């Protein structure tokens, strides 16, 4: 199979590129260039991951241009060419809630989340107009794993905590971190889900998480014990307080009807895979 992955230089893109190469597929990458688009006719599958993924980016015009406008042009090209289309959505569209079913109310709290929400809405409309087209939105929860160091402050707490523990002997967490719980899913599992869904002739938007929420404090404790690091508590920056999700936990009911996967636990990753 010939696969195009946009955003192939990003964290998930790099992992997915290697995953499909290892499976024997022909894989090509594409990075955003204003006004230019890949020739989708050449591919058997397009996987669209490219986006401005920073949740603190404030340039709304830039985000809409790359995350929404480019995505709309790309998906229309795939529809016209009859090429199946997978893309990365985000659990940030739900906002602060405890209901994470795909059909739940959405409350995006950042420009990034809004760009993902608006594209999801357009996808739902396109699926009604083009019911025979395969379009799969994978709504990522909190993805972590190897290859996200370049994201620096936007890396997952797991990777940031591990790096800090190794280099400084400390793990810095926000006050009340025992009350911040997230559904953390390993990038290797995300790649496997992409792979399994690739072979399913089904369209829709699907949550991609583990259905288990773990607190930042518990993660810090596991890392602290492994690296003999001291846990340091600091106040949350003001720039994060209005958009910080206190809880995420995927309802995987829909996804589980199509894939079969045993999710890696955070403890397994920290103890065995992150050295």
How would you describe what is shown here?
With 275 residues, this protein is of the alpha/beta class. It has two domains: 162 residues, Rossmann fold, CATH 3.40.50.720; 89 residues, Alpha-Beta Complex (UDP-galactose 4-epimerase, domain 1). It is 37% helix and 19% strand. It contains eight helices and twelve strands. Strands 2-1-3-4-5-10 form a six-stranded parallel sheet, with helices on both faces. The protein has a two-stranded parallel sheet with strand order 6-9. The protein has a two-stranded parallel sheet with strand order 7-12. α6 runs parallel beside α8. The two termini are 33 Å apart. The mean pLDDT is 94.
Features:
about 280 residues; alpha/beta; Rossmann fold; UDP-galactose 4-epimerase, domain 1; 2 domains; 6-stranded parallel beta sheet; two-stranded parallel sheet; about 20% strand
